[in-house]
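To close the chapter, one final illustration. This time we ask the reader to focus less on the individual chains and more on the assembly as a whole: which components sit near each other, and how the overall shape emerges from the parts.
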Amino acid sequence: MTGFPWLTVLIFLPLIGAVVVFAVKDASVRLVALGMTVADLLISLPLWWLFDASSGQMQFVESARWIPTLSINYKLGLDGISLPLIIMTTVLMPLCILISWHAIETRVRSFMAMLLIMESAMIGVFCALDFVLFYVFWEAMLIPMYLLIGVWGGPNRLYAAIKFFLYTFAGSVLLLVGILVLYFQGGHTFDILQLSQRSYGVALQIWLFCAFFAAFAVKVPMFPFHTWLPDAHVEAPTAGSVILASVLLKMGTYGFLRFSLPMLPDASRLFTPLMVVLSIVAIIYGAYMALAQADLKKLIAYSSVSHMGFVTLGLFMFNIQGIEGAVMQMVNHGITTGGLFLCVGMIYERTHSRQIADNIGLTKPMPRYATLLVIFALSSLGLPGTNSFVGEFMVLVGTFLWSKIAAALASLGIILAAAYLLWMIQRVAFGVPAAHVLPKLRDLNLREMGTLVPLAVLIFLIGLFPNPVLTRMHASVEKVIARVIPLPQEETSALNQQAPSSTRQGLTANVDLTIYRGGTASPRLADLATKDHRP
Amino acid sequence: MTFSMGDLFLILPELLIITAACVVLVLDPVLRGPRKDGLVWLSLGTLAMCMGLTASQVSGPTAIFSGLVIIDAYGAFWKLLLYFVTGLTILLSYSYLKEERLYFGEYYGFILLALAGMMVMVSAADLLTIYLGTELMSLSLYVMAGLKRAEPRSLEASAKYFVLGAFSSGILLYGISLLYGATGSTRLPEIATAIASQGLSDSLLLFSTILLTVGFGFKLAVVPFHMWTPDVYQGAPTSVTAFMAVASKAASFGAFLRVFIEGLGGLKANWSAIFLLLCIATLVIGNIVALVQTNVKRMLAYSSIAHAGYALIGVVAASRIESSSGIASVLLYLALYTFMTFGAFAIVAMLRKGDIEGEEIEDFTGLSKRHPLAALLMMIFMVSLAGIPPTAGFVGKLYIFKSAVEAGMTWLAALGLIFAAISAYFYLRLVMVMYMREPIDHSDTAPHVVMSPTLSIVLACAVAGVVIFGVYPNPLVSFAMQAVLILK
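The assembled structure is written out below.
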């Protein structure tokens, strides 16, 4: 362990904050919580630039013995996949505190403490390089989230809270069995990096894949394990919905990418058809369900199911476009859906209804609000120039390489997304309002603008300049792909001298063709796809 | 039989405890009013002394009294745990008995006598000595369970406990006598030698093993010998229930492991199959029946049954692996179980509804509004019982299931964990009631927690154990590892 323990500080600062909020005066509880999350954000930002993008290795690694009898270590580290997710988390947390400023009036201390504990656990999940440590963080967030939904949630909160808890807990107990089996099969270690380098028998891999799948698929949530999600999202307080949608769901896909793919490559390949089918079903089914919702939160919840389908689809394409697109989409979905949930929370504070029918025609009384809502919605439907376009497009390119039919079906999801989101916008932003509602509504104040604008900025920033994110994850994603699709022995030896990654170059060349033929090419994306050619 | 004075010195802790028990019994009628509190401090002082003495006996095994008793790290592990639990019980009882208006000096005497019995159980190397210890423990507990003389439920508990306990002791004794017939000895090492030389085919041996299993099954409260548990746990005064659920279970496991590993180790293949069945039945019944309980004490009773099932997973696994880490995981599990279960019972004991205990789940409604701290602690205990990190319960389960996977019984680990997920429902229901429901009753008779200095000490110890060992279990783990090196 050398240098500054960035990650430890990042994880435990919010936890300290959770204790501190109980020690300060009533008036300053919110400020302290905000201060803690902002401090955490400021600590996480330098990592973005200190990170060495050319390396696929774990960086900022910290390691200490924790439970030596089981060789469990306290080991943390970052790579290009976890870095954007961590930054996304630290960016969202202050916004969650801000949106709860007036929305939460009861037991404010406990609420803020729960949010801060959640932040610790979420960052811990993305940093952990020891499987038990990962599991501890993974499970540790169940209780705070359970309380967030159950104590500060809506009318049906008890049901939603217990459903959320039981679903995710039941899923993750099998993960623990899988972890223990890996411990004995992988040479008595819980070290994620070492476990990722060994090879296991195919039968064992299949069992392990199923165990991991139970935990991760519930969290994502993949069809048909998604039923906890609409309940939890709708009943949770706004900050809870944002955390759920933006970060918790990513933990599932992160789990697939960090564990299932590199540790169980053969099983991952075997299960690809199933995963693709489930993803496409999720994309289309989620979108159809979203079309039918009258409740804004439910609409966004189902749209999450649909969007997360793109992520799982991209992950199981095992090509650079698919996986980078998936990671991109994880970040994008966090930002965009987080923004949408924040918007719904704000309108709920004013009209005390989340029904679309009660919130019609907001452009006149609340122009700033309507503008931002439209931005988030357009980003969510993947308009070029916004962040989601980059992610979804890359996923679709990756899918196209694997199967044209799958890609065609998946793109249905984008069309449907345009349908339900534009229809929502048409009513909420541009509809003809009921006369009695209008005078009461005030537009966003400074705090609320401060909550939404950073996300809107990120949407365009990533949408127009995705390369900073992509370059950072590139080496790490290549490493994962190299695990899942190892080059055949003879080919490797033959190609070793001249062109080490010629298979992938081939793929990339295909992509370029696709892009140009499709006529949607932008120099940026071509650049993005061709950077594979770099030596 | 001959023995030296050195032998007496080695059982000084036992002697001290028995002496203290007698002193308490004698002094009780003499002392008046607040002076009776002195008995509490006397008992605690004795425990502290014994703790020091036993801690110095952690070294290698010494057989004394011609091999009837063995002083070793294994016994020391359990004894230290038992002192700790007894100390907590006395502290809890000090407040609890006042609230219940039960004034019996004998109470502390009986606790100490029961402790003496348990100490004999965990350090005896002879079946009859173990039986003696079991009886001393059980007889004291029968009396303590019926201490609320005015309450029919308490009397019922006592009578039920007595009848079933006596019955199971009879079976145990029968098993011991048959084993004596088969092997010609009641000493564990000699039994082991006899079994090794005779082979496994002797049906008398098998029959006696089954009888011993049944006898211990009652003491451990594993399904299907658990019927007495819910009624007794519910009827007995809560401080006694806590003592039974934790100390008596720990001591029974201590004796049980020594008998089956050291004495009947040669029959592993046979008894491990029986225990596998018992373990699955215990997990299923314990967790499923706990789901529908409305009384917290009954719920915790079923939960303690279920936890015995988890410990049995460790026992079954231990019988199939070479290393001693399997048994160590059982010791660790029971030690960690102590903190969370005792803490939970302590809160139930001190939740008062008017003059009586608030022990229904409804009585916890909205507790977080009225007593945020008590609710928080109860939540931590429940979360730990459900086995969610970062609490002690998770560490215990991690080690138990690790042993199961090591023994090649991944399916058993998966089954255990699935039931852990089911159990989360009833543990969390209490959390839900405390945190997510509004208090209904605002009058003076509304359930409230009576805090007292002694209760604070009890809760602080329990929660410290749950949290500290949840994050940093190493000291306890290495102690458990060291303790089981003695057993083969």
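Strands of chain A lie at 59-67, 72-78. The CA atoms of residues 218 and 225 of chain A lie 5 Å apart. With these observations in hand, you are ready for the problems at the end of the chapter.
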